[in-house]
Sequence to fold (125 residues):
Amino acid sequence: MFRSFLFAIILFFLLTLFSCESYQRNHYLSNFNHFIDKVENKGISYNEKDWQDADNEFKNLSELEYDKYKNNLTEEQNSKINDLKGKYYALRIKQGMKEFGKDLKNGLEQISSTINHLVKDSTIK
Fold:
């Protein structure tokens, strides 16, 4: 009788432990997914500080939090995490291209202005 009771307690403890771990792992995946959705939807209006904050949160989710769960993730969960990481990298590259485009446009306007002022300058002939 005591053995059955002890077995039931141990079984209950193990089931609770595994279900908590599963819940935490699923919670991590949900948080990571939510973060990527937020960046995808609001990233277009991010300023430099917003991107720094997003980069810090991404590092936390993709490295620090990931390290806690990586040994217990299924192949499907790992695939999902890799997809989320790839999506974030793509969002950052797109943002970098937009910034480069703005810088290029400004640079071209400055060159054009410089040339116009040189052409108008009567002392250069």
Q: What stands out?
A: The longest helix spans residues 75-120.
